[in-house]
Amino acid sequence: MSEENQQEQDRHKKVIYDSLAPRRKKFIDRIGYDRWDPFQEPKNPIEIRRDGTQRTSKELMRMFLHECPPREYSNSYGQGVLEMCMGIINDEDRIRAMYDFSLWYSELLKRENKKYKER
Question: Does the pTM of the predicted model rise above 0.70?
Fold first, then answer.
């Protein structure tokens, strides 16, 4: 930043400080006027995490349960689906291992002409 811009910013900072309420000035004095940055960019809202298909965990869970409804739904089943969705979006090793195992096991059943034992 050029010296001229810095001086302009310092003047603007002083104008902002002078226009503040005494209580707010006290807060700024406590943290230090030099450390205070009235021009700080606002924080971005929490990023909504998505998977490779650009879906949220809620969307994935809803789609899965709609397209592949279980014969018997339990809280444990729903919790497992949610955990998988969250793990996929967060790229967790544990979930990746379960996914890889599930694919492998599905292929094993096909090779041996067997079916997964359902309830």
Answer: no
pLDDT tens per residue across span 24-59: 999 999 989 988 888 887 776 667 888 889 998 899
User: Based on the number of CB atoms within 10 Å of its own CB, is 51 exposed (0-12), middle (13-18) or buried (19 or more)?
Assistant: middle
State the angle between helix axes of 75-89 and 57-67 in degrees (0 to 180), rounded to the nearest 10: 130
Give dist(CA 63, CA 67) in Å, integer. Answer: 6
Q: In 3D, which of 116, 89, 96 has the Cα closest to residue 105?
A: 116
Residues with Cβ < 8 Å from 77, sequence gap 6 or more? 70
pLDDT digits (tens, 9 = 90+) for 53-85: 999 889 999 999 999 888 888 999 999 999 999
The Cα–Cα gap between 7 and 109 comes to 74
